Structures are given as C-alpha cells and as structure tokens.
Amino acid sequence: MKEKRSLWQTVAGFLKDTSPFMTKVERVALLAELNLCLLLCSLPVVTAGAALTALHATLLSFSALTYGSAFKAFFRAFWKAVRSTLPLWLLTLAATGALGAGWYTVLVSQLTDHFSVMLPLLLSSAVVLFTAVWLYPLAAAQLYNGTACRAKELLSGAFLLGLK
C-alpha cells in the first residue's frame, strides 16, 4: 500500500534540483542568460556578428552547460569570434544598407510596378538574406571545431546552404 504524502512533501519533491520540472526551468534560465549576453554584446552594432557566432557556438555545447558555466563559455567564444567575424559582419551591414537604400529609392519613386527594377532587387535581397542566415552558424561550427574561419569558404558555404 502506498504511503500518502503530505502537500509539503509533494511540493518539495516537485521543486528538487533533480526533478524534471526544475531541469526544464534551469534550461530556460540558461537560454535567458545566453540571450542577455547576446543583447549585451550586440549593443555596439559592430560586434553583433561575433555575438551571434558566440551564441551559436555556445549552444552547440548546450547539454554540457550549467547556469554558472554558460556566461564564461559565451564570452570565451565571443572573444575568439570577434577577429574572424568582424569583416563578415561589416560586409553584411554594407550589403543590407545598400539593399535598404535600393528599397527606399524604389518605394519613394513608386517603381514597384516595374518588373525590370523589382526583379534584381528581390533576387539580391533573397541572396543576402539566405547568406546572412547561414553565415554565423557556419562560423560558429568552425569555431566550435577549432578550425580557422576563412571568409571566402564561409560565404560560399552559407550561400549554398541558403540556396538549398
């Protein structure tokens, strides 16, 4: 016959560090901590690419992280990524700035009905978007594996993954 547990024993068992509920809470808190680190490192816009790369590199070892070690792992990856991803991030900013200027010109001039103007703008926007989406996770994978981040290889790999 099962022994009936009191309400206090049930709540204490629910809030133990090893309970499934508290394990999920710890993982959510860990993700919140990593996102705060990302926001903090993205405040100077120039370092946002390195912050994205560091976030991806830290999440590659997510299962081994604890709440205390995530902060150190993020900033260790961030300082490794700053030098290698800064040119890529500046290139991404320049490309999106040029596309933004193009879209602004098209919308202000009311040229949205012209196929010859819209097609190149739409295609170039798609190429930049697909490349930028895959660029920093690829850089993080190379950083995580300890290999050097080469801009030409990263750009071509991100472009090909974006096309797939």
Compact description:
The chain has about 160 residues and is mostly helical. The chain contains 6 helices and no strands.
Describe the structure.
This protein is mostly helical and 164 residues long. It has helices spanning 7-14, 20-42, 48-60, 69-108, 115-145, 151-163.
Q: State the secondary-structure class.
A: mainly alpha
Quick check: average pLDDT? 82
DSSP helix fraction: over 70%
Number of helices, counting only DSSP H or I runs of 4 residues or more = 6
Sheet with most strands: none
Please provide the count of β strands: 0
Element order: H for helix, E for strand: HHHHHH
Shape: elongated
Content of β-strand: under 5%
Rg, Å, rounded: 22 Å
Write the layout of secondary structure elements.
Layout: H1 7-14, H2 20-42, H3 48-60, H4 69-108, H5 115-145, H6 151-163
Helix pairs in contact: 2-3, 2-4, 3-4, 3-5, 4-5, 5-6
